[in-house]
Specification:
This protein folds into 4 domains: 196 residues, no CATH class; 239 residues, no CATH class; 182 residues, 3-Layer(aba) Sandwich (Rossmann fold); 68 residues, no CATH class. The chain is elongated, with a radius of gyration of 36 Å. The strands form 3 sheets. Strands 8-9-10-5-11-12 form a 6-stranded mixed β-sheet, with helices on both faces. It has a 4-stranded antiparallel β-sheet with strand order 4-3-6-7. A two-stranded antiparallel ribbon has the order 1-2. Helices cover 57% and strands 9% of the residues. With 762 residues, it is an alpha/beta fold.
Amino acid sequence: MLVAQILSLFFITIGLLTTYFVLKAKKIKFPSWLLKTLSLTLAVAFFFRYMLGEDAIKQIFKLTNSPIDSKTLTVFSLLLNWFNYSVILLVILYPFFKTKKFATLIKSYGLIVVSFCVAFIYPLTQGIVGSTVYNSFNLRALLMGVELGIMLAYCIIVFCENGHFKIEKENWKSFLYIIPMWIITMPSFIPQAFLGQLNPLIEIDEFSQWHRIFLYFSIIVPLIIYFAFKNREYKVRRLVLLYISIAGLITFINAYKFQSWANPTNWPLHLCHTAMYIVPICLMFKWNKLFYFTFFINVLGAFLAMAMPNTTGNVISNNVLHFWNNHYLAFFMPILLVALKIYERPKLKQFIYSAVAFTVYFVLIAFINAWFTNYGTVDFFFINSDFIAEKLGLWAENLRNVQWQFKIGNLNFVLYPLYQFLYWLVYMIASAGMWFLYEQSYNYVDLMHDMAERRKKYKVDYLALQSRLNGRSEEEPMNPENSSKMILRNFTKRYGSSNVYAVKDANLEIYGGEIFGFLGPNGAGKSTIIKSIVGIQPITDGEIEVCGFDVDKQSVMAKRQIGFVPDHYALYEKLTGREYINYIADLYEVSKEDRDKRISHYVKIFELEGAFDNQIKTYSHGMKQKITIMAALVHNPKVWILDEPLTGLDPNSIFQVKECMKAHAKAGNIVFFSSHIIDVVEKICDRIGIIKKGQIQCVKTIDEIEKEGKTLEEFYMNIVNNTKVDAIKVEKHKKENNENEDKKVKGKSKKIKDKQGALKNE
């Protein structure tokens, strides 16, 4: 009974001393290093206790063959050891992922489970070590005492540091995690221990009906996890996945205790076995290159293993559940790690790394198979037997007839070079296919996410618009005081995942009646701003107003105010010029009287009388440019925007376009155009703006420039060549910064929700 006394004294003494010091100090803050030390000590004690021998309760079948005399105590032993695993993981991970919900689980659920383990220490240890646990000294029993002592002290510390019995309202939801924790940490022998086997017998093998049903439903769990945690902060996502992966590893290595490693044929070197170790290691230490090996290689192997299982038996038997636990986690965990943004989506180089790593693994396993065959039957990754070949047919089995045999000392080595090479090649091709599937899945997810964000944004924008209009028609400008202006406020544009902004914080105010020239070198951001004004591309940040209409929230009405001449136009070339212009006039609901008058005017000044009723495909480049200009002016827009409009025009047409620009501005409208022809800009513009590397450098009138004693060309060249400007880089959100990124997103989401509520109340 010496060991029992040591156990009892150990955990009771630590628990009582902890309680005493906490109560005496009333307010005590245990340092983080102490909690981490306790957690790591618990992890070491648990690891050695778990690995030093087989668990006695593993042999229980329908509550028979129990090392404990009483069935009631047998049930207690099964349940307490099971629930104890869930608490051990909580305590080990807590100091590295402190959250209030996590603390709530430990100070309530954890403390209750540990207290029951203390109260039922006798059946608890008997279930692990056996009925003779207290007959003599037993290291595993002593280590269990160390575990319970640490956990009791730990739970009391968390209990006292986190408000004792007080649980905040939002933290009650943490109790919803308990049942999933039980499912995740359930040892594979538990169903068999309680139920024996299902009757009638249900097996999952040979692609039977139950096998197919299981495969169909296998996607449900990862989807539930994804949708439950996709909007949670990075720390929570990583914690959940780490908890699942370690719990799966604990269940997996129940079949690979220390004594089994004495025989090399039992080593867990199958491809899917490696995933059980790789995933938690990558989550703990962030080993990126190792992760992408499991992402491309293990996922495929696990899926194939589930499709062609090499285990049979009742669906709840220990060996079947162990098999499916291994391969199911190896299948969906790497995918979840990318889906939940723990790891970035892989690029081609990551696939190449994984292919190289797999090749090394394959060659090594082929050699190990040949080596270990000298000590018994071994078939790591199924490349040492006809397990795969027999499923493909006689032709595949015949490939194994090509053998390479050699000896090293007294050891015989047999390799199957042709069969194994083709095996490797097919697997690599299948892995490349995985790359394709991943890419398609990413595109689909991006599309769904984009649609959801657009719907959410539309609702918020619509509510904001209704509030700003205050009962006025949606066809009225949001800001009527700006009905004769075009305004950019802190306009920012970033393309995709580019690490620099195309335009950053651009501010402009252009007035009715003026011609505004927009200058800058190629790639400076001119076309980016123009395309965002006319609604071709979305705005990353900031606002654009056209005649009082918000381009983002009143896009249709804003576009009605604009006539746009792009730098690269696209026309319906099977239509005649007249048909095309009438089509555009119909879109803008221009009356017949107005359109006929304008068409007649522009056909005359652009000298298109003889070709206007011919198909556009017969036109020259310059004639097509004229049709584009006519289409932009047929509805007499308040804002005429031209992006490099004079390219390809003859001198007479250039003169006519300039005259049109002057007349349009004289009528009180805005003319906004970009051009590289500085002489033209200088002669007809009232003001100019110069942009370089996405940042507006200056906005000046032509008179102001002339007063400085410079031509526009000299002024422009000085700004472009002598002003040092660097493109503004986007702050990179690496994985170590994900927590800050998630907080920003969470805060922005909360602001949107608050805004929605406020607008609804209005």
